[in-house]
Amino acid sequence: MWRPSGIFNVRYEQDRSVIRTRAQWTALAVFLFLVAMAPFFFANNYLLSILILTIITIISLQGLNFILGMCGQISVGHSAFMAIGAYSTTIFMERLGFPFILSLPCAGLSAALIGMIFGMPSLRVKGFYLALATLAAQHLIHWGLLNGGELTGNIYGLSVPPASIGGFVLDTDRSYFIFCMLMLLLMCYFGKNLERSKIGRAFVAVRDNDLAAEIMGINIFRYKLLAFSIGSFYAGIAGALWAHYLLQIHPSHFTMMDSIWYLGFLVVGGLGSAMGPIFGGIMYIGLKEVVALITPSLGSLFPSISTNIFSGLALIFYALVVIIFLLFEPRGVNRQFNLLKSYYRLWPFAY
To answer: Could you give the C-alpha distances from 208 to 73, 232, 297, in angstroms and in order?
Structure first.
């Protein structure tokens, strides 16, 4: 009986390919089929809304993975770049009359431009000091949106027009889920190929040792700015998708705590890996929904305990998960996933 025991490549094209085995092609085909059928399997709008928010979170974490995971630059203002994308797409559509299919990439480019500006301090500072610089970006952008006059709606926020493509309005959870999933597949494909390109290798060199990278001829300032711009572009796309799904945006939707938890769950998923943002996004939204479901039950079981304790239960769960992974599996869920794949490939000689 045939058993997989390693992967044997006989051509360079096989060695460079992302999907290398028959089992991987089969798994991809099954996954795409399940994705196409998901809107019909999950007729409940609540489940579809969870899937949509998970997809948006994964896209945002992919952008943060370029900045922190691949290039090693700390960003504590990622949620603010999502806000730039959300407000940009609304302004482009409401004020300038852009169609949705054009306002979406423009929102990403707007966030990329702002991210590049706030990434400029990365030439001179790093580590904790760079984190403070991006923290300033979070507060400056938040202040600008609250005091932007009619352009940003001040403290009232903005109403967002629904997304539409060629006259077809994405006004149901099913149609919006399909569009978001297509965007996720596109962004994952671009990110995976960028990771294996010259730019991705330069990012890794800067992350590992920027001084050695500069000696080898890599323009570290250029690649640091490029990492911030690409990461912010992903955040802008995620923010625009978020806005068109909720149809109402406000600066309070994009808080500093969100930026911090994005950092934490990117580590939980697997920092610097292609699958890390996917695992991190699933765990982040999954934990949030689990806590929302069990909190009322805990409140009824312990009526004498203050409800304020249960309202902060999500933060406690998030912190515990991040701490456990930092202590016992700092390379995240992705490492266990790779170990599982390696075990299957080498079976029955997995020892």
So the answer is: 11, 22, 47
Phi, psi of 20 (to 5 degrees): -110, -20
DSSP per-residue string spanning 158-190: EE-PPPEETTEE--SHHHHHHHHHHHHHHHHHH
Whether residue 179 lies inside any domain: the answer is yes
Coil, strand or helix: which one is 296?
helix
Which amino acid belongs to residue 209? N
Q: In 3-state terms, what secondary structure has residue 272? A: coil
| CA–CA dist 28, 10 (Å, integer) | 23
Question: How far is the C-alpha of 265 from the C-alpha of 329, rounded, in Å?
Answer: 13
Q: How far apart are the first and last CA of the chain?
A: 20
Give me the domain span that covers residue 246: 40-255
- pTM to 2 decimals? 0.90
Burial of 298 per CB tally in 10 Å (0-12, 13-18, 19+) = middle
**Is 157 inside a domain boundary?**
yes
The answer, yes or no, to whether residue 39 has pLDDT greater than 90, is no
| 60 found inside a domain | yes
E strand segments, the chain: 158-159, 164-165, 168-169, 248-249
Whether the CA torsion 72, 110, 158, 237 is positive or negative: it is: negative
Q: Give 112-141 pLDDT, tens digit per residue.
A: 999 998 888 877 877 778 888 888 888 899
